[in-house]
Every structure is written in C-alpha cells, then in structure tokens.
Amino acid sequence: MRELEGKRVLVTGGTGSLGQTLVKRIMTGQLGKPASVTVFSRDESKQHYMRLHFLQKDNSPALDGAFLNSRELLNFRIGDVRDYPAVVAAMRDADIVFNAAALKHVSSCEYFPMEAVMTNVHGAANIVRAVRENNLPIKKVIGISTDKACKPINVLGMTKALQERVLIEANRDCPDVQFSCVRYGNVIASRGSIIPLFVDLIKNDKAVTITLPEMTRFLLSLDKAVDTVIEAVRSNGRGETWVPMAASAKIVDVAAALMGDKKLPVIFTGIRPGEKIHEIMVSEEECFRTIGRGDYFVILPVLPELRAGNDPQPVLAGEYSSRDGNLTGKALLDLLTGATSEIEQFRMAA
Q: Is 148 a catalytic residue?
C-alpha cells in the first residue's frame, strides 16, 4: 500500500526522537514517494543539524532512499504548535499531519503544568481548529500519545489524555478528515529514556540509580514505535487509537542485563513526582471496545456515534499493563542488545 504517494506530509515536532525516525522512514518511500515532507518545530539548531544529517549520507544503506530523496523533498519550517497562525500556515501545504510535538518529560511537566497544557492540549486543539475553520486539504491527522495517558496520574499523562480526546472528538465535526492516535510505551532510544542513561552509567562504571525495585515499563524500539504510526496512517478507521503489543520488564532486570558481567552498585532513589510503578496501555474500561489487528490493539472511539454501530469483539479481558509478562534472561538481553546499537545510531544523528 502506498498511502503517502504524492502526498504533502507535515511532521510537527519532527526534530524529536520519534519525529526524526518517522521522517527517515517516510523518506525511504515505503509508503509511496511523498510530494514533500515538512519538519515543523521551534528549535532552529535541531533543524540545522537534522538538515546536515540528511545531506551527509553516511548511514545505513537501507536508508539510502531517504537521503537521496531529502535533497528534493525535505523542508524545514520554524514554528510552534502553540501558535495558531503558524499552525494554519504550515497546514495549508499538507495532506497528512503527524503531530509529534510534545512536552514529554514527566518531572518537567509536574513543575510546569501549564507549559505542558499549552503544547500537548492547545497544540492539538490548534491543529483541529485549523482544519475546522479553514478550507485546508488535510485528509489524515495522526496524534502521537503515550501509555501515561491511560489512567493518568501525572501532568504528562493528563495532557496527553486530553490530546487524545481533542483529536478523536474532531472526527464528529470534520467528516472529511480522519483523526487517529497512537499510544505506546517507553521508547528505548528516545531522549529522556532510562536506557541511554543506564548505558552511559555502566560504560563509565558508575552506580545505577533506580526508583523502586518493583518498577516496570513497556519497552519498544524507535522503529517499532514508528511501525505503529505507519499502521495508523494505513488504516481508514476514524477515531481509532493504535497500541503496539510490546515487551515489558522490571527496570532492575533491565539494569542487570545491560551490566552483564559488571557488578556495579544499584541505588534506589524512591519514586519521583508523578511517576507510576507500572504503566498501562489499555485500561479495564477500554477493554470492551479494544480489538486486535495483527501485532496491535486498536481502541475504538469512546464516543459511540464514531463507532458507526460496530459491535466490537474484545480481545482483552483485563487491562494491558507492564506489570504482566515481564521479559527476563536472554529474551530481555536480545531486546536490549538491538536497542543499544539503535541508541548509538540515534546519537550520531542527533
């Protein structure tokens, strides 16, 4: 399928961890060759280095197509999703929008909650408003969410939960546009992830800090996260939320696997503001409207009129939590071994 063939693609927050990987994948042409790809973000330095990275083709041969296409197709635009006029101007030249712009660090959002609201909620609302109030050519909007939006206890989760609802509800008023979301867990190589921190501490023979022994997290690679975004854009289901079937593990086991034969001290620091012990990607309340598609769960819209009278056959009997089915031993080591090489590749690109 070639959903992006000839399409003009806009990626808000395109200089972030997921944004950069998503842009690379789009540029390879696996979804068809787009007419253009525009990175919309507020950090001019990150845009500059991302542009240089694409112009200096020194990466995997598998990505050759992305780098060759970049000279012809890739554009950069300074702007902020908080700024409605800037959002409208960027969206005038787009058919497909991926909203990856976010404040995503749990602690930062706890200390500056209104900043998180402005980006994560008002930013999404500006995208919807731009579609609703202007004659724009947009056909699909995919919002990037997080497992923390499920039963949220922190500001990040609360604002991302609201972002999901803002985008899903927009399907009622904009019948010609498909609004969908993607919700996933801890991306191993992303900025702010615990795994790169562990890798650095262990390389330098320093003590590893962990909040609590019981702490668990979903773990998936950047490519798996982008796979989920791609599945969402391939689907024609309006108001869906796509969730990958991802591995999970105890953080203490992650640290032990990364240490290997090293015997470094582990310091338990206590739970941080807004932190969960276990993450949830599908809640008990969402189970009755969650179906399975391949390696993904798809949560159908909370608003019954958007489910078009479908009677879903639920595939989950309870919540989908990182507490359950934790990886250990070789299976965990294999996952992390692949991820550590991805971390190094990502650092070279950053």
A: yes
Mean residue pLDDT of the chain comes to: 89
The pLDDT of residue 51 is above 60: yes
Catalytic residue among 148, 160, 250, 276: 148
Closest CA to 215 of 137, 170, 269, 292: 269
Which pTM value belongs to this model? 0.90
Domains and CATH numbers, the chain: 8-349 (3.40.50.720)
Q: According to the 3-state scheme, what is the secondary structure of the chain?
A: CCCCCCCEEEEECCCCHHHHHHHHHHHCCECECCCEEEEEECCHHHHHHHHHHHHCCCCCHHHHHHHHHHHHHEEEEECCCCCHHHHHHHHCCCCEEEECCCCCCHHHHHHCHHHHHHHHHHHHHHHHHHHHHCCCCCCEEEEECCHHHCCCCCHHHHHHHHHHHHHHHHHHHCCCCEEEEECCCEECCCCCCHHHHHHHHHHCCCCEEECCCCCEEEEECHHHHHHHHHHHHHCCCCCCEEEECCEEEEHHHHHHHHHCCCCCCEEECCCCCCCCCCCEEECHHHHCCEEEECCEEEECCCCHHHHCCCCCCCCCCCCEECCCCECCHHHHHHHHHHHHHHHHHHHHHC
| Angle, alpha carbons 118-120-126 (nearest 5°) | 70
Predicted confidence (pLDDT) per residue in 206-234, tens digit: 999 999 999 999 998 888 899 999 999 99
pLDDT band at 47 (very low <50, low <70, confident <90, very high): very high
